[in-house]
Amino acid sequence: MVESITNGICRDRFENEYPFEPHWFEVGGQRMHYIDEGTGDVLLMVHGNPTWSFAWRNLIKEFSKTHRVIAVDHMGCGFSDKPADYDYQLEQHIGNLEELIKHLDVSNITLIAHDWGGAIGMGVAGRNPERFARFCLMNTAAFRSKRIPLRIAVCRIPIFGSLAVRGLNGFARAAQTMAVENRQRITPAIRAGYLAPYNSWGNRIATHRFVEDIPLDASHPSYSELVRVEEGLKQFEDSPMLFVWGEKDWCFTTEFLDEFEQRFPQAETLRIPEAGHYVFEDAAEQLAGKLREFLTT
Fold this sequence. Notes:
The chain is an alpha/beta fold. It contains twelve helices and ten strands. The chain has helices at residues 57-63, 90-104, 116-127, 150-153, 160-167, 170-178, 188-195, 205-212, 223-232, 254-263, 279-282, 284-296; strands at residues 5-6, 9-10, 23-27, 30-37, 42-46, 68-72, 109-115, 132-140, 241-246, 268-272. The strands form two sheets. It has an eight-stranded mixed β-sheet, with helices on both faces. A two-stranded antiparallel sheet has the order 1-2. Strand 5 (42-46), helix 1 and strand 6 (68-72) form a beta-alpha-beta unit. Helix 2 packs across helix 3 and helix 3 (116-127) packs across helix 9. The chain is globular. 44% of the residues are buried.
């Protein structure tokens, strides 16, 4: 039986949705949480903002029957520590995940990534190409772009952004409706699961820092790291690649998918017209079926 309190967060309200044993890895003096279920070839699931490994719960349950599934919580997210004195920048998130896969000494990895997980996961793959075999990317980016929706841009405004994101939990709460098209699927237990780790001003620090860390021009501290991630994509042109895209996503629109398809013309694509940003909620069964087909082809 998994304990109901994990790193200070009560999981009673969503334990049936997320019944996994916690695992911990210390990096930079902080504890990073991850899920490690099943045996076999490795599926590495990397979340974005404002989610955490909870977003992968359905895929973990399904694919841990046949694979070893590792799903990480970035520092400041989920059950990982949430230090106040921390950079929370792209390079640091990439470095943390890189240290974890080296610690676990895994290879032949299939990367499954969403939102910020695309840049972080492809950043790690670019540094360790010998460890990665396949890629499934959904509603994400791993290259430079100046596109930023107004509703995210306003969260970067000094003072206002802090009050909205950290004070009111506006980013994570809004995602429950703005990132999902089929809102009836978001039960009280699922809603509780998404919000539980972000239950105070202090625990919402990474949610805000992710918003601030979007590098739109060369003056941004994470811009050069994003360039490195982008330049690393080319080495995977011949790797098996699957794109799964919720076409109603107002953040990572189909324009991002178009660019990915230009960079990887041999990739498979599953466009889901009725799904939004949280494609793993709107089209959970369709996503799992396509991923299973991709892994067995």
